[in-house]
Amino acid sequence: MEFLASISDTRPLAGFDEHSLEWLGKLFKQTVGNEKEIRREEFNKIPFFTDRVFQIFDKDNSGTISLQEFLDAMHQFAGKSPDDKIKFLFKVYDIDGDGLIQLRELEHVMRVCMEENGIQFNEEQIKELTIALFDDADQANRGAITFEALKKQLEKHEGLLENLSISIDRWLVPPKPEMKQKSHLEFLTSLRPYQLTKPYVKNNYVYILFISIFISINMALFVTRLYEYRTSNGYVMLARACGQCLNFNCSFILVLILRQCITFLRTHGFNSVLPLDQHIYLHKLTGILIGTIVVYDEILNSNNYTISEWLLTSRPALFGLVEGFANPTGIILIILLVIIMMCSMPFVRRGGCFEVFYWSHLLYVPFWILMILHGPNFWKWFVGPGIMYLLEKIRRIAWSRSQLGKTYISSGLLLPSKVTHLVIKKPPHFVFHPGDYVFVNIPVIARYEWHPFTISSAPEQEGLKNLF
């Protein structure tokens, strides 16, 4: 570019490649036109700058910015040296330019950075976070943060510089050129879900194979039941086929929450042939399938019997472990299932109502009792998983009441990407393997709220343990 070549004192800029430098020149020329310097009102047209940044760029306080001043300021932030970025950050944070960052200045910057990154905090939370960061940085109790204090603070917390900085590097990336018009084949290919792409299948073949087997079992049960009732009318055939699938799924959903069995399989290498890490997702998926089948089954049954016949007469007395129990238990089962599913929604579990989810899920006890009474053959499917779950539950309760897992949190830290880091004292007789996780309960917060944390410490390490 001619005007770049005419600048005799322009030096190479670390952190910018030739393409980015050319783009900066074009950006400058597009803004100023035929003039050689940019005015404040023209500078504001560049969407990623503010009046405060203008003061930083205008080194000689002339009220205008030359190309060299523009590139020098960019170079200071885009350079590879972290010190350059911290110096630039300090200038941005020091709104009044007195060489010190006051509490109000830091609070203003925190608010702007959170808005930019889409983080939603109320005013009280922003003030608390600002005070915590300010007090930690102001070790000398000066009531203000110096450049050295800010530098130590950013070096102390890995990733804080990246999260709190205004990422000019990212803003200077030229926009992607418009894509050329796709062919019909390319358009149809772009509509293909990511789950059907070759990389996804290659990385998740164990999970895909398991889902395929799960679907095949349901289809086989459905078809064989249809054939068994082939002499009945269509509604009866489909209703009995749905009932057979419910027998399997209402038992299988229990297998997916046998935590101790799953942990045993994981520690003995079965993770390579079974999707053990997806057991919670599969549990939810099976629950959705059960709900869908139940609704469809009730629609089919409504075509064979009226509501009054189901509830008020003994006409459908053929069904149930005890004759006549199928109709009233079926209605109660639907009500229980609706309550369990509604209280398991993410907006309930993660919306501060975890204990609602916990207590509503205890309805599984009457649900399975009624399922045994509802279907004459369900107990045959349920007896194995039911005994295993009962043994796990007894062992879990015994461990909880023994107080062997009781410990205290030594420290906690909120990390980027919503990660919580806890440091706890190792409970006596606590044995674990690499990659294990532990369920943590803090009674003063919620007596029945448990959350899984991955253990990042080595098994042979004594004393404090790190959890994430």
UniProtKB/TrEMBL annotation:
Tree of life domain: Eukaryota
Entry keyword set: Calcium, Membrane, Oxidoreductase, Transmembrane, Transmembrane helix
GO biological process, one term: superoxide anion generation
PROSITE patterns registered for this protein in UniProt: EF_HAND_1 (PS00018), EF_HAND_2 (PS50222)
Record-annotated EF-hand domain positions: 51-80, 81-116
A GO cellular component annotation in the UniProt record: NADPH oxidase complex
Pfam families on file: EF-hand_1, EF-hand_5, FAD_binding_8, Ferric_reduct
Protein name per Swiss-Prot or TrEMBL: EF-hand domain-containing protein
GO terms, molecular function: calcium ion binding; superoxide-generating NAD(P)H oxidase activity
Membrane topology: Multi-pass membrane protein
Location of this chain's protein in the cell: Membrane
CDD domains documented for this protein: EFh
Chain ranges passing through the membrane: 205-223, 235-258, 317-347, 367-391
Taxonomic classification: Eukaryota, Metazoa, Ecdysozoa, Arthropoda, Hexapoda
Primary localization class, coarse: membrane
